[in-house]
Amino acid sequence: MTLKPAIMTLKFFWPLVLGLSIVIIDNGQYLRAETVTLSASQRQQLRSLDAKIILPNYIPPGFRASEIKILAEEGKGYAVLFENAENSCFLVEGIENARGDDGLELEGTLALNSPLFGEGYWLNYGTPKNSELRQQFPEPDFYSDWMKMGEYFYRLSGALIAREEYDYPNCRQDISPSEAVKIIESFGDNN
């Protein structure tokens, strides 16, 4: 089977599967991405939204999609929690009305070049650069800029947001910034 028919076959079966291992080429090296496997119930939850479902095609080894929250309070959307056995986690969020960034300039930033969303977005991580704000917000934060597609906004966020905004108390550790960039740059439309 050539690549083109294989891609067409994947597109045909994608709505039924949502659980594939994908190989990504990164600087000439092959990386095996873990599988995004969603249960029938999780797939149905996501399909109930009138939104493009954006999920990563690359997940670090040992991580799995463990929970989905459908949001309804401040506009509709979803948050998919990915975690591993060591309490590292990240979220992929898609919401109708993004609040924008929190205005904190964090210690670290990495440029993103997403095939889906384009350039001009950043991964933000660490504590605030401003020393007064650092005293007020001492825990390191971790999130990408909100990336717009249609009426929805999407981002990857880390352990602090998972704990404080989504009540996932076991999320204790962020993934590395370089892994986050790989994940974000692998975001794909899963409708």
Brief descriptors of the model:
191 residues, alpha+beta, Phosphorylase Kinase, domain 1, 5-stranded antiparallel beta sheet, 3-stranded antiparallel beta sheet, 5 helices, disordered N terminus
User: Which architecture name does CATH use?
Assistant: 2-Layer Sandwich
String of helices and strands:
HEEHEEEEEEHEEEHHE
Highest CATH level, the class: Alpha Beta
State the total count of DSSP E strands. Answer: 12
- Overall geometry comes to globular
Query: Between the first and last Cα atoms, what is the distance in angstroms?
Result: 25 Å
Overall average pLDDT: 79
**Overall structural domain count:** 1
Tell me the name of the CATH homologous superfamily: MucB/RseB, C-terminal domain
The whole-angstrom Rg is 17 Å
Summarize the structure.
The chain is α+β, with helices and mostly antiparallel strands and 191 residues long.
What does it look like?
The protein has 191 residues and is α+β, with helices and mostly antiparallel strands. 24% of the residues lie in helices and 36% in strands. It has a 5-stranded antiparallel beta sheet. The chain is built from 5 helices and 12 strands. It has one domain: Phosphorylase Kinase, domain 1 (2-Layer Sandwich), CATH 3.30.200.100.
